[in-house]
Protein 1
Amino acid sequence: MAKKLRGELFYLSANDLKSGEVVYYSNKSWSRNLKEARIIRRDEIEEFERIADLNEKKCKIISPIFVELSDDGKIKKLRDIIRYKGITF
């Protein structure tokens, strides 16, 4: 899951399996609120990969990804910004 990561800071994001909504890993749970998301350092990636795998196996989430952040904590990639903000027209 984390093979192409380039940055140093990330959020762990996924889709809630029941609602389909985008969720972010906070501390020990998933939240729809980005402000509650835990910032993950590159050296913590393996630990959070295990958390994502476990939650996916328990059918809580689907399609976990690490969202790369800039140094000031903002989402870097347009794809992830659109995912956070929702459908655009």
Note: Residues 6-47+61-70 form one domain.
Protein 2
Amino acid sequence: MRRRQLIGVTFGIDKGPLTPVTIFGVEEYIGRAIDVACRLQKKVEHGEPPTYKALMSKIVHREYFALPGVEVGTKKEEHLKNILGDRAFECWEVDLTPPLLGFSESPPTAKQH
């Protein structure tokens, strides 16, 4: 049986300082925030189904999505390769499913407390 191909977006999101470097004549950026964002995205890709999901660091959630009395996303703890050693990394998962696609997943919602 052939598995249906899923198409969609996944994100890993973190915030922090980046350092510009030139590699082979091309300007690139390096920094822990990129490493964390990449590892968060990799964790999203292993979910079921992985499409239309984002994992964001606690700092991004707190600074951009934490509103008084409103909960955005689901709090999770993930072990990220080479981040915090063996300790769990606190992050938030957000469902980004467009409501018009007819998927069984629900569109992003905000829960009132």
Note: The chain has one domain: 10-112.
Protein 3
Amino acid sequence: MAPGWCPAAQEFVVPPVVTRLVAGRTRREVIDELVARVDETPGVVVGFDFSFSLPEWFLRDRGYESARALWDAAATDGEGWLRDCEPPFWGRPGRPRPDLPMHLRRAEAEVAAVGGIRPKSSFQIGGAGSVGTGSVRGFPALARLQDAGFAIWPFDAPAAPPVAVEIWPRTFTGKEAILNDLHGYVRTRLRNRTRTVAHRFIADGDVVVVEAKGDNVTPEGVRYDNDYCLVFRLEDGKIKEIREYCDSTLTERALGPFPQTPVRAAS
């Protein structure tokens, strides 16, 4: 989430459990692994960095009555969408950005720019910053997970683990944004300092994945014990980047809706 730092506001309790990270798997192999292991590990939350759907008008025009219908269509037609790059898709040589009713989903259009960078259109399947190809190829994976018993948030709401969520790594970027705009609000909703217990480590070179569980309570006495997957990337022996995945539905249920304007905790 942020380069060059570790969240000092969070206490980690570390038992000596170390496993390994296996790289080089195909998209299908990753989903196979998730499906096979979901019963072994309760409270599974999986975060994917691709769009879970397309703008509503596209589904309406194609006759898709739900996101699931879109995912199923992508399983049969998605490679053709990518190959032909016909409007509304664009970004390949000779395929400029077309005029569309809307390029972004509502949530993407409403999210604030981070460092001048805004979400990209999932219709863009070529060129710098394109996110469409990964999304189109990810749609069938969501259908497989849903068939295996995963809730796909927010389409299956309220969602309880095992659950797959869409993550936007750039929503909070930089040390100050994380500490003040994200964790600042969380700290105002907890009785004591945030406590997270790490229970599994998976290391591969400069990447370390930590599975952890929260141990917290709100001022009203509500337990907030979220499940976390933290991905640390190291560089020159220091933490360069952290990505955190958690159950955002549980967060909102326990702490309340996240405010539209930053709420900062007292120093």
Note: Confidence is low (pLDDT under 50) at residues 1-19.
Protein 4
Amino acid sequence: MPKVLFTVSYQVRPDMRETYLSNVRQLRNRLQGEEGRNYTVFQAKGKEHQFSEVIVADSLEDFDAMEDNQDEITRGLLQEIENCMERGTTRYTTMLELE
């Protein structure tokens, strides 16, 4: 089965940067540590408000299950992160590994 690479890129409102960083670090610790997910966040070089979240899932089924199986804490962190984003800047990409 091919792996799935999912990215979501966006700009964070300048006044919400510190709130965003706190929430995204909590989310990263939760997804990597407690759930064992391949998840990380990148900041664009030279652009202090441009970020990309990257998730690599072992299969399409695993990727689909990630959203279906979110607990309240994870959903709350995702909502807080979304509240920090500039409207209209979010771009999603889902890619499948070549076999």
Note: The chain has a mean pLDDT of 94.
